[in-house]
Amino acid sequence: MTRIATRPYSFRHAEMLRQSGVHPVLARLFAARGLVDASELSSEFSALIAPSGLLHVDAAAVFLADAIAAQKKMTIVADYDCDGATACAVALRGLKAMGARIDYIVPNRFEYGYGLTPEIVELAVREKSPDIIVTVDNGIASIDGVAEANRRGIEVVVTDHHLPADTLPAARVIVNPNQPACGFPSKNLAGVGVMFYVLLALRAELRRRGVFTAENQPRLDALLDLVALGTVADVVKLDANNRVLVAQGLKRMRAGRMHVGIAALFRVAGREARRASPFDLGFAVGPRLNAAGRLADMSLGIECLTTDDAGRAWEIAQQLDTINRERRVIEAQMQDTALASLDHIDPRDNTTISIYDDSWHQGVIGIVASRLKDKFYRPTITFAPAGDGLIKGSGRSIAGFHLRDGLDLVSKHAPTLIEKFGGHSMAAGLTLRADNLEGFTHAFEEVGRASLTKAQLERVLETDGPLEDAYFSTAFIELIDGHVWGQGFAPPVFCDEFRVVSQRVLKERHLKLLLEKNGQQYDAIWFGHADGLPERVNVAFRLDANEFNGRTRVQLLVEHAEAA
User: Fold this and answer.
1) Three-state DSSP class for 212?
2) For residues 231 and 242, is the Cβ–Cβ distance under 8 A?
3) Which of 238, 316, 353, 556 fits a disulfide with 541 by CB distance 3.0 to 4.6 angstroms?
4) Measured distance CA(157)–CA(74) in Å, rounded
5) What does the DSSP assignment read for 8-41?
6) Pick from 354, 415, 411, 349: which is nearest to 381 by CA?
7) pLDDT tens digits for 321-354?
8) How many alpha carbons fall within 13 Å on the CB side of residue 387?
């Protein structure tokens, strides 16, 4: 069940924003999202929090500057998702521009699993013989891997954003806004954001040493398209600092100043870069890049982001698009299997869902978990076989249930159940012995029951209430589109009562509507919903500028509707 609710907001804060020149409707929207000061809306590069607040970032800069001066060999160890791939591309391009001898290696998720493991260190030694390993988007949990690197005389710089365990790896330097004692105001940097900050600090250090001047230093803003993509695709909270990074990246894309790989991904996805939005990055460009890490090898995705040859980038983008289509087919099959196996149990009787099938593909279980979580609104973990009697799980959570902490509780209650786990509040991964699945399912459900209330298991669609008639306009839509919306800074959804003038089903799946309010008629569409509506409905909707035959008209994208 979905319940429509209106976001509360402070009238005083909205009024303060309005008085500082913010549009009255936007002032209300921003106040409802916790904004107090119009300065938090600045998307200028100068509004970024200074790197110096990031714990150890200056130590990392000094260490890397020394390493570059000594011409030491560096190898990046990347992660196989979109954040990891963009972070790798940012590290590779940025460090190369600063004069580093640098290469990268990306673990194949099926052979090596996640992070800097002892096996990956061995692989790096065999293939790259580095003096220094730099991790991007991983490493904070790599205690054994860092120990192995140290044993072989390799120094490790960890750049990561994941939550640390009680023990930190014995790396030479760790830069992670979520490590203990780090006072950096934004804990929400993605892995690519952390690496970008390391480069900013390194460039400043090289200026201090006289290697560069303000005139001839490398242009790090050229990397912001990559930073924006990784930040949106990793679904980290878009706080004021992340909104600056994303806004700056989008600005470059819209102006056509992006890397050829990103341009090719836009083209293959059939999206226009000149109108790039966070939605495009999260749902069109990101998934095509992620598909490589899910089904094949992420080095293909990283090559797409690091090549400067437009022809090669287009070739790779087409391959990635094909892999993504294959991923969709596998995902649809897995989802059908999952729904069939949930037929005999009512997920609403439980607070959690744990489900396994031995035909499933471990590269796609995360997406299936996400779909099931959306459908049943329960913290969901889907498992696939991982060989040697092990199964791998990928979980997605709902508001109010911290998934990594939930797994931590399971492992404290029953220390033998989980082989290893990691992640954050909304997504996590774990490995079990197959014969422990039943015990885990039971223990995970116990944790769910202890911490989730009935109200938390009801999906609440938060809206911004009614929108005045005057603002159903393309001009107002442009105003909304001028800001970055996304995770933790939800796109505006309005809600009002309408009369249904007419309705018909398109392609057996979508409901096309003509709605009326105060004598005005509006086109509307509810994607993925084919059941008819009564005459008077409360509709939660987003505004969309629909271009058709050269004309742009406002249409309402229905998120949910219920009888008025």
Assistant:
1) coil
2) yes
3) 556
4) 10
5) P--HHHHHHHHHTT--HHHHHHHHHTT---GGGG
6) 354
7) 999 999 999 999 999 999 898 877 777 789 999 9
8) 6
Residue 103: predicted pLDDT: 97
**Residue 453: CB partners within 8 Å, gap ≥ 6?**
none
Give the model's pLDDT for residue 484.
Answer: 97
Q: Please, what is the Cα angle at 486 between 481 and 491, to 5 degrees?
A: 55
Which stretches within 51-158 are classed as H helix? Answer: 57-69, 82-97, 109-112, 118-128, 143-151
Count of CB atoms situated within 10 Å of the CB of 554:
17
Determine the Cα angle at 484 with ends 483 and 489, to 5°: 115
Instruction: Give 512-520's long-range contacts (Cβ < 8 A, gap of 24+).
Output: 513/556, 513/558, 515/539, 515/556, 517/469, 518/469, 520/469, 520/472
Q: pLDDT band at 521, cuts 50/70/90?
A: very high
Question: Which residues make beta-bridge pairs with 421?
Answer: 430
Query: Which neighbouring-strand residues pair with 173?
Result: 157
pLDDT in tens, 88-128: 999 999 999 999 999 999 988 878 878 999 999 999 999 99
**Tens of pLDDT, residues 285-302:** 999 999 999 998 899 999
pLDDT of residue 48: 97
345/284 Cα distance (integer angstroms): 34
Residues 180, 168: Cα–Cα separation, whole Å: 10
**342-351, 409-418, 439-448, 510-519: least confident range:** 342-351
User: Side chain identity at 374, as an amino acid letter?
Assistant: D
Helix axes 299-306, 310-341, angle to 10 degrees: 140
**In 188-285, which ranges are continuous DSSP H helix?**
191-208, 224-233, 240-254, 260-268, 278-280
Spatial separation of the C-alpha atoms in residues 529 and 511, rounded to whole Å = 6
Q: Show the CA angle centred on residue 227, arms to residues 111 and 294, nearest 5°.
A: 25
As a whole number, the mean pLDDT across the chain is: 96
